[in-house]
Write a structure and sequence with these properties.
heterodimer; A: about 475 residues; alpha/beta; Aconitase, domain 3; five-stranded parallel sheet; B: about 200 residues; Aconitase, domain 4; 8 helices; about 15% strand
Chain lengths: ~475, ~200
């Protein structure tokens, strides 16, 4: 019996077994940001501990950064958090991609961009979307702040091994169906809690054909399906993406690449569960409620609690519709929006902006809709600007901003107001997620967000943009 | 590091309805603009405890005088999903909760809570419903989570089994819920592993 990538990486990083039976796992790469790290450094100071391997921790600032005048937060609490990260990085000797470095951005965009994210590694970060790095065949997961302390102090964590569920998606995706739709569809099928106890291995020809950035979109939202981590096996695309990046050792690259590829799951690997999905069944998918598994195809109607299978499901639909102020049993298409947000660690990369820019020329954002585009990193911003994408967005009426997490969780000034409804390329539609306790979020792909912004209501981008001929994942 | 073993916790209980209660709900992101965990208790469930428009208290169970001082939280499936923010269990701990009984927990939340010596035990939907009915009928009931024996009992005579991973149970009852010292003690093995790996 062969091994899955998860088992190989886990075994390669096991330091030992702890008294309570958990594994002490070596964390090869540690990423930190300003929100979940200051208390961990505080604990180190209280305990008189140092950072064990400072070269294995990388910091950036993303959650609280303003997207207009990035380095001048008006909020004194945000300024304090930025200063705390600066001081902690300096005091403990940690590499910090700060605003002046030209490399700042969302931690899950920066890691891959710098080549810090590599196959066969373990990556932890005080952020649940750390699963993103699984796109490279890393075992990457979110941790709490006390665990950030553990990694800083010992470079290890006390963990329980996960089971592995292989999710195979085979066949051709239809034109206008994107990586975002694939993961929203998977979460809809398996539920927001379906992945508890599992790592998700995404396999099949749909993921084989995806670019690295598309794979990141999929792995990013593993946690929305309850899976702490998700990954795609490394292949030639993974190797090509990493070739020449700043933190990749190029001295013996062929051997490095061969080692990376050796972590891919064996053909006879054991899986605790296997799920098979037909790619042709996936439509552009949007959410209608307050949990990421509240997804429907754009052609479908908002669920009707009267038709719910169980009393619990009925109550859940009622709660969600009451919050969303949406009528049961009516089409989701046509629901008016107030705000459009393209960005986040899910969909804030260059390919996302290129794809949207292909379609929006000659169109204008509808009157009354506020539409913002937030690059995932300063490097993404510069590349997009060099290609003239920023001009395409601004000419169409979108605001082009500086890099950060922005309106995904609204810890910076980008927030919904009152019960505004936002078409969003981010990852969570929880109550209050986008900064207003009554704000409403509808998750979708960036191209679908653009269509909603232009029409002023939730739309089928395939109709507005005449997307028929070319498949999104070629 | 000798820590206090957590073999059982006892207190009055409050049921918080709903599936998939996420950590944004438990502690909205705007309250995370802080460099310590102090003071988070008052913001637990803030946006559902107070009407966002008027600032008035809502009908949330935590505003119900009958459940004032409750230290055991009872919930449904996938409690603590979403963001990995430790601010969520920190805020519940500082609000006064010492233990949680739910149908299931999101993993990161579960791990964070264990490290804060706040046991999270899993009960069947039927038993959660029975406990909910019991505490709503008599909010003064004393509820005990017995981590050692893996059962929940009430002063009213209700008793049912609960589960939790062996490692978490062991960590709690043996006073090893904060693993830092044990991790540090294995320094030689950590150094050896670091030398063995091919990266950084």
């Amino acid at each position: 019996m062969g091994k899955s990538l998860f088992q190989k990486v886990w075994d390669a990083h096991t330091v030992g077994t702890l008294a309570d039976g958990r594994t002490q796992l070596f964390i090869g790469t540690h990423l930190i940001h300003e929100v979940t790290s200051p208390q961990a450094f505080g604990m180190l100071r209280d305990l008189g501990l140092k950072v064990k391997f400072p070269q294995r921790t990388f910091a950036t600032v993303d959650h609280i950064v303003p997207t207009i005048d990035q380095d001048a937060p008006q909020d004194p609490l945000a300024a304090e958090m930025m200063q705390a990260l600066r001081k902690n990085a300096d005091d403990f000797g940690v590499t910090y991609f700060d605003l002046a470095s030209g490399k700042q951005g969302i931690v899950h965009v920066v890691g891959p961009e710098q080549g810090i994210t590599q196959p066969g590694t373990t990556i932890a970060c005080g952020d649940s979307h750390t699963a993103t790095h699984g796109a490279f065949g890393a075992i990457a997961f979110g941790i709490g702040t006390t665990q950030v302390r553990d990694v800083l102090a010992s470079q290890t964590l006390a963990l329980e091994a996960l089971k592995v569920r292989r999710i195979e998606v085979n066949g051709g995706l239809r034109p206008g169906v994107y990586a975002k739709d694939v993961i929203l569809h998977i979460i809809r099928l398996l539920g927001a809690n379906g992945g508890i106890g599992f790592a998700y291995e995404y396999a099949g020809d749909v993921f084989d054909r995806m670019s690295m950035e598309e794979r990141m979109t999929v792995c990013n939202m593993s946690i929305e399906g309850g899976a702490r981590c998700g990954y795609v096996n490394p292949d030639a695309k993974t190797v090509a993406y990493l070739h020449g990046r700043p933190y990749v050792d190029m001295s013996n690259f062929d051997a490095t690449a061969a080692r990376w590829l050796s972590f891919a799951s064996d053909p006879d690997a054991h899986y605790d569960d296997i799920v098979r999905i037909n790619a042709a069944d996936i439509e552009p998918t949007v959410t209608w409620g307050i949990s990421p598994d509240h997804g429907i195809a754009i052609s479908e109607n908002i669920p009707d609690p009267a038709k719910a299978a169980t009393p619990l499901a009925k109550a859940s639909i009622e709660e969600a519709l009451a919050y969303m102020k949406l009528p049961a049993g009516t089409p989701i298409k046509g629901v008016k929006i107030d705000v459009a947000f393209i960005g986040s660690c899910t969909n804030g990369r260059l390919s996302d902006f290129r794809e949207v820019a292909k379609y929006i020329q000659g169109h204008k954002v509808a009157p009354g809709v506020k539409a913002i585009v937030v690059p995932g990193s300063q490097i993404v911003a510069i590349q997009a600007e060099q290609e003239g994408l920023d001009k395409i967005f601004t000419e169409a009426g979108f605001e082009w901003r500086g890099a950060g997490c922005s309106m995904c969780l609204a810890m910076n000034p980008d927030k919904l107001v009152g019960d505004q409804l936002c078409a969003s390329s981010s990852n969570r539609n929880f109550k209050g997620r986008q900064g207003s306790p009554t704000g409403r979020t509808v998750l979708m792909s960036p191209v679908m967000v653009a269509a909603a912004a232009i029409n002023g209501h939730i739309s089928d981008a395939r109709e507005l943009f005449h997307i028929e001929k070319t498949a999104a994942v070629a | 590091m000798a820590l206090e073993p957590v073999k059982q916790v006892t207190g009055r209980a409050v049921f918080i309805p709903g599936a998939d209660i996420d950590t944004d709900r438990i502690i909205p992101a705007r309250f995370m603009k802080c460099v310590t965990f102090d003071g988070l208790g008052e913001f637990a469930f803030y946006d559902v405890r107070f009407n966002p428009d008027t600032g008035e208290k809502t009908e949330h169970p935590l505003n119900d005088e009958r459940f004032k001082g409750a230290s055991i939280l009872v919930a449904g499936v996938n409690f603590g999903c979403g963001s990995s923010r430790e601010h969520a269990p920190q805020s519940l701990r500082k609000y006064g909760f010492n233990g949680i009984i739910a149908e299931s927990f999101a993993e990161i939340f579960f791990g964070n809570s264990t490290t804060l010596a706040m046991p999270c035990v899993i009960a069947s939907a039927a038993d959660v419903a029975k406990l909910r009915d019991a505490v709503e009928a008599d909010p003064a009931l004393e509820v005990t989570i017995d981590v050692d024996a893996l059962k929940v009992s009430t002063s009213g005579g209700l008793e049912f089994p609960v589960t939790m991973p062996d490692s978490a149970r062991d960590a709690l009852i043996s006073g090893r819920w904060d693993p830092i010292q044990e991790l540090l003690d294995n320094d030689q093995s950590i150094e050896a592993k670091a030398r063995e790996l091919h990266y950084v």
